[in-house]
Specification:
By secondary structure, this protein is mainly alpha-helical. The chain has helices at about 5-15, 20-40, 50-60, 65-75, 85-100, 100-110, 120-130, 140-150, 160-170, 185-195; strands spanning about 50, 85, 120, 155-160. It has two domains: about 5-100 and about 180-195, EF-hand (Recoverin, domain 1, Orthogonal Bundle), CATH 1.10.238; about 100-170, Recoverin, domain 1 (Orthogonal Bundle), CATH 1.10.238. Helix 1 packs across helix 2, helix 4 (about 65-75) packs across helix 6 (about 100-110) and helix 6 (about 100-110) packs across helix 9. About 25% of the residues are buried.
């Protein structure tokens, strides 16, 4: 890419991924280029595949759940090409690392909505929770937890239900499993990637 093309790309990404400064976007683009170099030549420099993405999220944030990692990849891969472009990378990280509560609610809901129908069904909840360390109390039916979040009592969780539950109790943002990096790993990632960025 030409120097002018790179500048235009960084300027554009700084506007679209509004949570990063221009210098931070430049660092993320450099990291992207490094990741693309690790990827197979199948995408001819256009992006990196699911394997590189999963390895990166595992190494940077300790994310290990296969279902969650596949869903996060799908959320980042907005054009459904099977690889992550530089725009998808920077815009996805903007939400993952520095998103507003509203952005993170939409992101987490999309991760948990396994079939993309706009609802989190009981089956999807159980699929997400089956690998979770959360253990149901012996005297509580599994459906009870679902009923607590289902504000309109229709047997499934809409974004509106999820949003209301999270606004009532922020800890419910990742109710069905961790899909956001913890604060410590986010800070470590940012310090490592942005270490040369002027303040």
């Amino acid at each position: 890419m030409s120097r002018k093309g790179a500048k235009l790309l960084v300027d554009s990404l700084t506007r679209s991924a509004k949570h990063f400064t221009k210098s931070e976007v430049e660092c993320l683009v450099k990291l992207f280029d490094t990741l693309v170099a690790k990827a197979s030549s199948q995408f001819a420099g256009a992006g990196f595949d699911r394997t590189v993405f999963r390895d990166t999220l595992y190494n940077a944030f300790g994310m290990t759940d296969d279902v969650v990692l596949d869903r996060v990849f799908s959320i980042f891969d907005k054009d459904n090409t099977g690889f992550i472009t530089v725009v998808e990378w920077v815009e996805g990280l903007a939400v993952l690392l520095r998103g507003t509560l509203e952005e993170k609610m939409k992101y987490c809901f999309a991760v948990y909505d396994l079939n993309g129908d706009g609802y989190i069904s009981k089956e999807e909840m159980f699929q997400m929770l089956k690998h979770s360390l959360l253990i149901q109390p012996a005297n509580e039916e599994p459906d009870e937890g679902v009923k607590d979040l289902d504000y309109d009592h229709d047997g499934k969780l809409s974004f509106t239900d999820f949003e209301q539950a999270v606004r009532d109790e922020n800890l419910l943002l990742e109710a069905f499993g961790p899909c956001l990096p913890d604060i410590k790993s986010s800070m470590s990632f940012e310090q490592k990637i942005f270490r040369k960025v002027p303040k």
